[in-house]
Amino acid sequence: MHQENIHNYLRSYFLANDCHILQEKPGLLNVQLTIELDKELMNRPFYWHYLEKTGGTPRPMNLTLITNQNVEENGEFVHFGAPRLHQIFSSTKKLASSIRLYEEVQTSFQQQYPLHPWLGLNIKISYQCDRKKHRLLSLGLHLVSGAVVDDFHNLLLKKALTPKIPDYAFTVTPIIKPASGLKRLEGVVEMLLAKEDVQWAEEAQMRWASDQHLLDQFYLGNTNDQRYEVEKEALRKQYEPTITAEIINGGIFHLVPGIESQPYPT
Amino acid sequence: MRTELQFSQEWTNHFLKQIDEDGPWANWELFKLAIEAEHHRAIPSFTGLQAPSHLPHLTPHPYQLEAARRVVEEMNGKAILADEVGLGKTIEAGLIIKEYMIRGLVKKVLILVPASLVSQWAIELNTKFYIPAVVQRKSYVWDQCDVVVSSIDTAKREPHRSIVYEQQYDMVIIDEAHRLKNSRTKNYEFVQHLPKKFCLLLTATPVQNRLDEVFNLVSLLKPGHLGSFENFEKDYKSKEKNPEDEERLRSLIKKVMVRNRREDTGMEWPERIVRTVPITFSPEEEDLYRSVEALKKEPISTRSQFSIITLLREICSSREAAYMTLKKMLEKETLDEVTQTFIHSLIKKIESVPTNSKAEKALELIQSIEGKVIIFTEYRATQLYLQWFLKEHGITSVPFRGGFKRGKKDWMRELFKNHAKVLIATEAGGEGINLQFCQHVINYDLPWNPMRIEQRIGRIHRLGQEGDVHIYNFATKHTVEEHILTLLYEKIQLFESVIGQLDEILTRLGMRDIEKHISDILLHSESEGEIRIKMDNMKELINYQKEDSNASRKYS
User: Fold this and answer.
1) Rounded (5°) CA angle A72-A78-A82
2) pLDDT in tens, A101-153
3) Which among B25, B45, B47 has CB closest to A100?
4) How many structural domains comprise chain B?
5) Residues of chain A contacting residue B255, judged by C-beta atoms under 8 Å apart
6) Domain extent listing, chain A
């Protein structure tokens, strides 16, 4: 992640959280935090607790973040490894967990138009043994026809979306309920994974078996030894291949019909 | 075989509740940012290192990055990091911990280090690696902090021990791990019972003297890698040396060990300038020394009461050191009269020694040096004496010992850095403090184990040292010291040669216990001439092996 990206990310994050930017220049961002964001980021529960008890005037902090080391001003240097950035990443995820949006269309003659409901999920898959990697998926499920599209998030980025239903739009009632929609998408993820190469897991199993074999030799069948049990369990934790899916975020999207006719080949 | 998918339900339940309650819904900008953040955080591949991109302030050396990569990709996160002293094993360990933390494979880390290094480790992990390591000072730290630095002596004691065993550590790091070479110690047993999902053992002297020490270290890391104890004994110890077995053993060890040597790093290192400083005894000192030496000719009943070699070495260091040993002997109840009389006569001789020739030489040298100086001695009594002696001559010095509490060690180091000219360290204090701001080392008396001298020099000849390093070896003429110096440090050219190489040679020769060999030669030779011949034989043997290993290196 480049320093400019980090700068832009931070600016968007604070603006999206209704903070006022006091000063901005290349490599520097000075932000007046809102009360909510002060509580979210500054880790001073005692102050807020005290204030609420005494009824004083809240004074949320202002934060100066430096994204270019050559800027000679006081502030916190934020780079890709900085704990602050990862705190803000986590905060973003927490604050943006689920959403509902409507597509807005410019219509002439005040014409009414229908919007179809979609369930969209952004999913992070973790493949773990003694190593680890991720795969990100963005899936959309058409809650009328059951069609599934891949790369759903990129599709949404091309649209004008709004949190309130536009004046001339009307929504079509879903045939698939959200709860069963979620189950369907889980099924889709499973099916996608079934098509993947499993060599990594097989190799991990082999490494595991090999170390387990050495361990057995070392204790020469004396498996009652407590140390043997400890080591054996540690080997399982080290090597056992697991795949987990975690939903980053998702929501209900009411969109102009059309996309479901180019569904993802399932 | 297919790996089953675990689908986290946490989000799902929350989402369904929000649908029921019609909100609150997130803001579209934030929603997009959350996905952007995940794209940055996601790790696309099992291989490669993520850590460097998280550490813009750190510029690891290529060999350090390679070490980290090998540990993760080839050793599955269990390794002995055995770089020579001063090459930055801590940096390698930090990179590896960071890598696993970024990948989400490690959350809880237990770092066991000598007491003197606890705060240094915590500071380095926090400042260089943004790893929130906490020094274990209160017992709640075990539960509440993910990355804990502690001394092994604290951790192994109750009530800590039980709490430590209750934690689910993902990674265990042990610094100065050569201290765990003996499998019968409490420390060894303690570590053996720790679950080690990922584990790093750090040591600069992996094969100190004996093969079974390597066995113990490797077995701690990866039990069975070198077979069971019984088989190991059978294959490598009892039999005649079989080159194929040795080769097999070495290649097995290589699979779990990273060992960088200065010469392999491809970097420019400051020079080591070694000088021998000969000392001449005063007549009184000479007399004292010869009286002890003469004990060798006494009947066994008298002779065996004394550890002659120890006394001779002590006399070469300071009369105080010898006095302490004699005084301790007198406290023994079983002493016969002849011995007692002899001890008393020796003490009389000690009392009549007016000056310490070596200390005077040291003073002269220190006064001629502009920068800071470290003096290493093996004896506590010498340390105290030198401190007093230097003070008499207006030179401030700071003592340093292994037994100091960690806070005191840090403080002494700072005192030396900012306020004193000289640091006087005993052997045990040498380990694990970094003194690269100093360029002069006086080996006031020489350890007989070459690895220990390397540990000493490594304190200052390490990453961050900008000037050349000067080493002054003190040796009293016509004494045991001269033999040692001639053998180890001049004829084998220990200082110039690569320490790892000597270590290998000694192992192959089966002379892992070089101290004992030398003692035997000195004690059981009839004359100076005999000593010289035996030492020469030893030298020839070692040098022969060295050329051999040089040659095989060239072709490998």
Assistant:
1) 140
2) 999 988 777 788 999 999 999 999 999 999 999 999 999 999 999 999 999 99
3) B25
4) 2
5) none
6) 3-95, 107-198+243-261
Residue B38 has pLDDT above 90, yes or no: yes
Contact criterion met (CB < 8 Å) for B36 and A9: yes
The CA dihedral of B61, B62, B68, B69, to the nearest 10 degrees, is: 160
pLDDT value for B426: 85
B220 and B369 housed in the same domain: no
Q: Which of residues 87-146 of B touch A (CB under 8 A)?
A: 103-105, 130, 132
Which residues span the domain enclosing B125? Answer: 51-264
Final residue in a domain of this structure, among B491, B513, B537: B491
Task: Measure CB to CB from residue B56 to each of A79, A99, A233 and give the nearest one.
Answer: A79
Is B487 in the same domain as B385? yes
Q: Give the CATH number, domain containing residue B79.
A: 3.40.50.10810
Same domain? For B109 and B182 the reply is yes
pLDDT at position B434 is 74
CB of B252 within 8 Å of a chain A CB? The answer is no
Complex prediction ipTM: 0.94
Q: Would B445 be classed as within a structural domain?
A: yes
Name the β-bridge partners of A123. Answer: A137, A247
Tell me which of B241-245, B309-313, B525-529 is least confident.
B241-245
pLDDT tens, residue by residue, B53-93: 999 889 899 999 999 999 999 999 999 998 887 788 999 99
In a domain, B513, yes or no: no
Q: Is the pLDDT of residue B95 over 90?
A: yes
Neighboring chain A residues of B27 at a CB cutoff of 8 Å: 16, 95-96, 99, 163
Pair B327, B283 in one domain: yes
Whole-Å CA distances, A155 to A105, A260, B512: 15, 12, 69
Contacts of A214 in chain B (CB under 8 A): 222-225
Residues B178 and B218 in one domain: yes
How far apart are alpha carbons A252 and A116 in whole angstroms? 10
Whether the per-residue pLDDT at A197 is higher than 80: the answer is: yes
Per-residue confidence (pLDDT) for residue B119, from 0 to 100 = 87
Once rounded to an integer, what is the mean pLDDT over residues B276-295?
89
> Does residue B56 sit in the same domain as residue B115?
yes
**Which residue of A9, A98, A226 is in closest CB contact with B25?**
A98
Residues of A with CB below 8 A from B38's CB?
A: 93, 122, 124, 136, 248
What would the two tokens of residue A35 be? 């009360």
> What CATH number does residue B449 fall under?
3.40.50.300
End-to-end alpha-carbon separation of chain B, Å?
41
Q: Nearest chain A Cα to B168, which residue?
A: A234
B283 is a domain residue: yes
Across the interface, whether the CB atoms of A89 and B56 are under 8 A apart is answered no
Name the pTM for this structure: 0.75
Q: Rounded to an integer, what distance in angstroms lies between the CA atom of residue B213 and that of residue B192?
A: 15
Surface of A (110-169) touching B: CB under 8 A: 122, 124, 126-128, 130-136, 138, 153, 157, 161, 163
Has residue B22 been placed in a domain? no
The closest alpha carbon to A141, from A95, A179, A94, belongs to A179
**Same domain, yes or no: B408 and B484:** yes
Give the tokens for residue A38.
Answer: 């002060």
Both ends of chain A: CA-CA distance in Å?
Answer: 34
**Nearest CB partner across the interface for B28, out of A99, A216, A244:** A99
Q: Distance, in angstroms, between A173 CA and closest chain B CA?
A: 14
**C-alpha distances out from residue B78 to A130, A252, B109, Å:** 10, 46, 14
- Pair (B289, B240) in one structural domain: no
